[in-house]
Specification:
The chain has 369 residues and is of the alpha/beta class. The protein has two domains: 22-154 and 300-309 and 315-321, 3-Layer(aba) Sandwich (Rossmann fold), CATH 3.40.50.2300; 156-296 and 339-355, Response regulator (Rossmann fold, 3-Layer(aba) Sandwich). Helix content is 41%, strand content 21%. It has ten helices and 15 strands. It has helices at 2-20, 58-73, 87-99, 113-122, 156-171, 185-205, 225-237, 249-263, 298-310, 340-355; strands spanning 27-30, 43-47, 76-80, 104-108, 127-131, 149-154, 173-180, 208-218, 242-246, 269-274, 282-284, 287-288, 290-296, 319-322, 329-330. Helix 8 links the parallel strand 9 (242-246) and strand 10. Helix 2 (58-73) runs parallel beside helix 9 (298-310), helix 3 (87-99) runs parallel beside helix 4 and helix 7 crosses helix 8.
Length: 369
């Protein structure tokens, strides 16, 4: 009898352990409001782009906005990572979320454009939020944002401009470089804005930070960490002091290279992108190689639209732009590596951008390619 009871107890423990284990595969989810027993207001799903959910950039920033909305508004949240990056790969995961009851779906990145075009027609009772992209077919690039979809863009050129001004003001002189991921509009605008910001500081504040043609490079992916480290190493070896990285995982490699050099006593810097990357650049005693970060507040934009949906005012059919005027772009509120004088001047410049006194071009013009 004692042996039977022992066996039964073991079986109960094993069953409990199995029930408590979730899938560690390609997705993750949270309960409504962090485990609240109340029924969720609605379910929000996200499909990741080519990177991981913890890419320190676009996916992670978007997911943070989803999670915060989930906690504040009692929403059940889940993300899925596709096995590939084709339209069919994305549509498969969108369909999986929809079938599981996640009828508000967030898609971070231009790669979702054709998939969201198809999904908004197929799942008419669902809501779609696409960031940095607009729905269209593979053959016709005419934007089609239907009533169940909202398209979100950012003025990356303004964010890059502010970061460029801050970098030049802080370093005063030297050489800067730019490492981009894929040569797409969002990344290009960061580059062009940064160059305009450096030029503005040189022309108006007497700084002498230069950018050479060979130090402006698009690596071609967002996930080649090793290549990011190699490119940054080459630039630093050529005398570059600071590298602006707008490249996802490629940028992670650049940050790691900068950390290695900083530990060896070298004075090198990185300008982060999309989110505040200061903590990613810490190498000792809370010191970081991240001078500042050119941010677009992806988390806040995602959060705001989910709040609109919760309040019954989903901005379907619209294309929204987040810029300095609505505090959608800029640099972090706290920049430990920037002096109080630099921060004060940057605030003045930001106000001039808001008022329209300073205008930043979203095109390359005569800037360095």
């Amino acid at each position: 009898m004692r042996k039977s009871l022992f066996t039964l107890a073991v079986l109960v423990m094993v069953a409990a352990m199995i029930a408590g284990c979730g899938s560690s595969g390609k997705g993750g989810n949270t309960g409504a409001n962090g485990g609240d027993t109340k029924p969720a207001a609605f379910k929000v799903g996200m499909v990741t782009d080519s990177g991981t959910i913890d890419d320190k950039s676009f996916n992670e920033g978007t997911w943070e906005g989803v999670l915060r909305a989930g906690k504040d508004f009692n929403l059940e949240t889940k993300y899925l990572r596709p096995t590939g990056t084709t339209e069919s790969d994305y549509l498969r995961e969108i369909g999986n979320l929809y079938d599981a009851g996640y009828k508000t779906i967030v898609a971070p990145g231009y790669k979702f454009e054709t998939a969201i075009y198809a999904a908004q027609e197929k799942y008419k009772d669902a809501k779609f939020i696409i960031i940095d992209g607009t729905p269209h077919t593979a053959k016709d690039f005419t934007p089609v944002v239907k009533e169940n979809t909202v398209s979100i863009f950012f003025a990356e050129q303004e964010s890059g401009f502010i970061a460029g001004v801050a970098t030049a003001l802080q370093l005063k002189e030297g050489e800067a470089g730019f490492i981009g991921g894929m040569e797409i509009p969002a990344v290009q605008k960061y580059n062009w804005g940064f160059q305009q910001g450096v030029k503005y500081a040189n022309d108006n504040f007497g700084t002498k930070l230069s950018i050479k043609k060979e130090n402006v490079i698009y690596q071609g992916t967002f996930d080649n960490v090793a290549a990011g480290g190699q490119l940054a190493a080459q630039m630093y070896d050529r005398g570059v002091n600071v590298v602006f990285t707008a490249a996802g995982g490629v940028g992670v490699g650049s940050i790691r290279e900068a950390i290695t050099r900083a530990k060896a006593g070298k004075s090198v810097w990185i300008v982060g992108v999309d989110v505040d990357q200061y903590t990613d650049g810490i190498y000792q005693d809370n010191k970081s190689v991240i001078l500042t970060s050119a941010m677009k507040k992806i988390d806040q934009a995602t959060y705001d639209v989910l709040k609109d949906e919760k309040d019954g005012s989903f901005p379907g059919g619209k294309t929204l732009t987040f810029d300095t005027k609505n505090d959608g772009v800029g640099i972090p509120a706290e920049n430990p590596n920037l002096s109080a004088e630099t921060v004060a001047k940057v605030k003045e410049i930001t106000e001039k951008l808001k008022s329209g006194e300073i205008k930043v071009s979203a095109k390359q013009g005569d800037l360095i390619k």
